[in-house]
Write a structure and sequence with these properties.
This protein is α+β, with helices and mostly antiparallel strands and 71 residues long. The chain has one domain. Helices cover 66% and strands 14% of the residues. The chain contains three helices and two strands; from the N terminus they run αββαα. A two-stranded antiparallel sheet has the order 1-2. A hairpin with a 2-residue loop joins strand 1 and strand 2. The N and C termini lie far apart (36 Å).
Length: 71
């Protein structure tokens, strides 16, 4: 019986994490420029695009936007 409960809780936690990942990706799409690619992956959300690493380092507003969403 405990195993069934543990399995259900695990599935519920995974579903919640997937929903939160999708929600975060949608929020990022609304805030970030269109040339930033936003993908959901197993580990979370992947941001990429031409010059994204450099842009992230140089653009403080981008860092603050992401920091505010990830809290």
């Amino acid at each position: 019986m405990f195993e069934k409960l543990e399995t259900r809780a695990g599935r519920a936690a995974e579903a919640h994490a997937d929903a939160r990942t999708q929600q975060l990706a949608e929020e990022l799409r609304a805030l970030l420029p269109p040339d930033v690619r936003i993908e959901t992956i197993e580990e979370g959300v992947l941001l990429s695009g031409p010059g994204f690493g450099r842009r992230f380092v140089l653009d403080a507003s981008l860092r603050w936007t992401l920091a505010g969403l990830l809290k």
